[in-house]
Amino acid sequence: MKGAGEMVHRQAEMLCGESTISLRVPESAIILDMKPLVPIPDQEAAVHAALKEPLHSPPLSDIARGRKNACIVISDFTRPVPNQVILPPLLATLEQSGIKPEDITILIATGMHRPNLGEELVNLVGQEIVDNYPIVNHYCRKSEEYRKIDEIDGAPIEINKVYLNADLKILTGLIEPHFYAGYSGGRKAILPGISSFETMKFMHSFKMIDHPNVANCVLQDNPFHEYGIRVTELAGADFILNVVINKKREIAGVFAGHFNEAHLAGCDLVREHSLIKLDRRMDVVITSGGGFPLDATFYQISKALICAMGIVKKGGDIVVACECREGLGNPEFSEILHSTADYKDFCDHYSNPCDFTIDQWCAQNIYEALDHAGRIFVYSPGLSEKNLRKMGLVKIENLQDTVDVLIKEATDVAVSPDGPYLVGTV
To answer: What is the rounded CA–CA span in Å between residue 87 and residue 46?
Structure first.
């Protein structure tokens, strides 16, 4: 029985790396939680069924019949796509339709991330697929690997030639909220997944990221999304296989067929379960980087900070838990964070297209969040106090102790255990 004046608490399980951190929060706090997504009992059977009865498309077996070869685009290791569940039925369908394993190339849409090799590649797709199918990484800086197919506002749109030259083109991926494209999956496998560095400079420019409709769960009048559709139509996409997963990363929806129509159906499911409307902004927002693999580097934590910024008051506090086992991220990203004083300093330099630097877009979001929030506290075993202090971030050693102090002075507190996988709006 609670004593007079004793605060009632409840637990929130914050994603951090491959585990969770139990956080005690007051009962008055708003816990942002996805509506339950029931997993599909027989996931492999569901994938087979989606390939046979796709949305707005003939069955994949009909499309594949008579094709000489195929290219399947998959996400890289930063996305928890259940490749070892969705790829075997897809590959089996292509082989049954007459395409030999050696003629089916799996192309990893690395965007500007590092290649996935060795044990990491085995973890991505499974040993059997590594042993039996050609697998290539996309390298955005190797000019011999891509070809120009369009030009937008003077910028070249250049796409991987392995994909462009394929007789059958298939996109796979995960549909979840995305802070630029509205939702991941679908057309995003091509742009930016297998695009060149010059194309990235346009799609991730200061001006593009600064556009008000380049935002989570927004497709209408979102130029990032609209350019993705335009380029996918030009590059060609014969079929997509996208999935939606629940908090336990079990498949809860399979969306196969037309690259846009099937993707939109998946977006509808994500919107229903991952978007929460709040009636006011918060004094304190406590969030996570989304757990591994998303929180492997601080580069990806910009997604969590943008989500938190969307619901915290101007000058409010943000607390984020993120493992960051690989540190800050690429050297270029780290250099931006260590050499930029504040949001104004960032804008003065990087708003000029001539000064574009790889990974500046995530730095742009981090400085934007810093400018909006009063303080940002970071619990991260993988980052040093020195790393964070240079950015104006506060490293904390104990998540619970920090939260206990902050909530004493706060009226409205929101907790988002899943970080960027759930989007709050006001």
So the answer is: 12
- Sheet-wide strand order for 239-245: 135-137, 104-109, 70-75, 168-174, 239-245, 251-257
- Reported in sequence order, the residue ranges of 307-371 that DSSP labels E, i.e. its strands, are 312-321
Q: Could you tell me if 265 and 336 lie in one domain?
A: no
- pTM for this entry: 0.89
**Is position 362 within any domain?**
yes
Boundary-marking domain end, from 230, 257, 272: 272
9 catalytic per annotation: no
178 is catalytic: yes
Q: Among the options 9, 48, 56, 113, which is catalytic?
A: 113
Task: Mark whether 319 and 305 lie in a shared domain.
Answer: yes
**Mean pLDDT of successive 10-residue stretches along the chain, which has 426 residues:** 52 95 95 92 97 98 98 93 97 98 98 91 96 97 95 94 98 96 97 94 94 96 97 97 93 98 98 94 97 92 95 98 94 90 92 89 94 96 91 94 94 95 92
